[in-house]
Design brief:
single chain, 272 residues, mainly alpha, two-stranded antiparallel ribbon, 2 strands, transport, transmembrane helix
Length: 272
């Protein structure tokens, strides 16, 4: 026989508990307004599974990003720094990416990093930590976008120099091309959002084709081949730093090949 302290829950209490479990607002909390449609609306997904994978690949674009700074690890140890740096960097970034993917899967939202920080930090510091993380993410995105755009602008002008020896590039030329590239990207994203999926898939296949073509061409035209011992064991430092610092700088440069793990958040949101 139950004591007096135990009593049957009222229907309103049962509804409130059920709403907490299902994450839906309880009928008590809903405003009592007639003819109100509470159906949730979602934005239409513009990325398919293939285009999402392609977007993640093009965001990282490892071989292009790494090739832009390949001279650093080669001058800071040559083959051993380059090869073993990529292996160590791959292990480190795989651990970070796995943890980040787990957090993104547990707390999927448009906010990304700052929302994860807010959900995982203690209540006393979560507001400041999320605010700081959000602004750091914005500054990082702005800096990374400007850096990539300037790199592409410099590459375009280098091609112009190769085709026209009389052309002398100026700093303001690079800046104008940079502004032009940013304008094109803005117009493409704002005026033709439905075409972004097809664009990233095209860039994905173009990147793979260019990588294979570049690799085959370099191996075919290079007449002098170094022995395996030189590639894997001979540490050659011509950077001017000591061997220890050179190895650290070369390793840090190899991490650039694994940049862009933020694409994990977008892929999870697009797939799920």
């Amino acid at each position: 026989m139950k004591g007096d302290s135990h009593h049957a829950m009222a229907p309103s209490e049962q509804s409130a508990i059920a709403s907490v479990i299902s994450c839906d607002p309880s009928p008590v909390d809903k405003p009592q307004i007639e003819n109100v449609d509470y159906q949730q609306t979602n934005l239409r997904k513009r990325f398919t599974f293939v285009s999402t994978i392609a977007f993640g690949f093009t965001t990282m674009n490892s071989w292009v990003a790494f090739a832009s700074g390949l001279a650093v690890p080669l001058s800071c140890g040559a083959g051993p720094t380059l090869i073993y740096g990529l292996l160590v960097g791959g292990i480190v970034m795989s651990i970070l990416a796995t943890g980040y993917a787990e957090l993104a899967s547990a707390f999927p939202s448009v906010g990304g990093q700052y929302h994860i920080v807010y959900m995982t930090f203690p209540a006393s510091t979560r507001r400041f930590a999320a605010f700081f993380t959000g602004w750091m993410s914005i500054l990082y995105t702005m800096g990374a976008t400007a850096s990539c755009s300037f790199f592409v602008a410099q590459s375009i002008l280098k091609l112009v120099t190769l085709s026209n020896e009389t052309y002398v590039g100026q700093s303001w030329h690079v800046y104008l091309v940079h502004i032009c590239l940013c304008t094109i990207a803005f117009l493409a994203a704002s005026r033709f959002p439905a075409a972004l999926g097809s664009i990233v898939v095209s860039v994905f296949w173009l990147s793979i084709i260019v990588f294979i073509a570049s690799l085959v061409t370099l191996l075919a035209v290079q007449e002098v081949k170094q022995p395996s011992k030189f590639v894997f064991t001979e540490f050659t430092n011509v950077s001017g730093w000591t061997n220890g610092w050179a190895a650290m700088i070369g390793l840090a440069s190899c991490l650039w090949a694994y940049c862009g793990i933020d694409a994990i958040m977008l892929k999870l949101k697009c797939i799920f």
